[in-house]
Amino acid sequence: MVKMTQNMDFPGKTDSPSLLELKNVTVVRGGRKILDSVSLSIGQGEHVAIIGPNGSGKSSLIKTFTKEYHPIAAVDGLVMNIMGKGTWNVFELRKLLGIVSGDLQQTYYRQVSVLDVVLSGFFSSIGIYYNHKVTPEMETRAREVLEFLEISHLTDRLISELSSGEARRVLIGRALVHDPEALILDEPANSLDLKALHSFREIVRKIAGSGKSIILVTHTLEDIIPEINRVILIRNGKIFMDGKKQEILTDANLSELFSLPIEVVKKNGYYQALI
Ligand SMILES: Nc1ncnc2c1ncn2[C@@H]1O[C@H](COP(=O)(O)OP(=O)(O)OP(=O)(O)O)[C@@H](O)[C@H]1O
């Protein structure tokens, strides 16, 4: 399969450095290449969906962005730049890239208030502890974020007592509290019912409209909000295709990606895969 040329024609493109630039990124885990010579560039303000079957390497790619996984040296030259820089302090990096995943939600089993969950984003922690110095500015910012996400009414509730949809929104608040350049959503809509899914999409659309990049990792086409114009397909740890959404999301491409006959339907700016 010929890799399609990368779509660099996106709204918000500027001459400033790419948000993420990877060349020849190979990651080995358990003696196996789980990412294999991945090269891609995502611009500041660009909205992208990364789609692939289970085990294709989507989460590993995110862990590579956040320096949890490290690429091996490449003969053709390894590049792993974020905002034009190759070296980052991990804490600074985590503030630059706000991440929300289903895994994160499961770590909040303690009795933590919604306000403290959002504030914990300042400390990359799971809750607020005695050694964390919460300033009035931090608290003001956390309350602003809750307001932006339309969940101020949940401020004093315990996260363990919220519905999945409410809790997911709170975790977005934790990721946004630093004002990151990009919001990375890893399988964000898992376990949401139809109403929660609708309100989740609307809030992600609002964030996309506020100028932050949305990088959405999913195996569900329905998660792709209309603001996302570029789709990257990933298979067996490699970029399978990368280009404009309407050119990539075809019956033939999705059928080949998932090794299954798939019909792609489009309605009201959203896509759906029928099997
Ligand atoms: N730390 C690790 N050690 C060994 N193997 C790993 C590790 N991390 C990931 N893998 C393997 O790499 C492959 C890609 O995993 P990854 O979690 O990135 O896939 P994914 O596309 O996110 O899948 P899913 O949609 O199921 O979440 C899988 O085969 C997985 O078992």
From TrEMBL:
PANTHER family named among the record's database cross-references: METAL TRANSPORT SYSTEM ATP-BINDING PROTEIN TM_0124-RELATED (PTHR42734)
InterPro entries named in the record: AAA+_ATPase (IPR003593), ABC_transporter-like_ATP-bd (IPR003439), ABC_transporter-like_CS (IPR017871), Metal_Ion_Import_ABC (IPR050153), P-loop_NTPase (IPR027417)
Keywords, comma-separated and alphabetical: ATP-binding, Nucleotide-binding, Transport
Keyword rRNA-binding: no
Record SMART domains: AAA (SM00382)
Domain ABC transporter: 20-261
Name of this protein: ABC transporter, ATP-binding protein
Keyword Endoplasmic reticulum in record: no
GO MF, any single term: ATP hydrolysis activity
Alphabetical list of SUPFAM superfamilies matching this protein: P-loop containing nucleoside triphosphate hydrolases
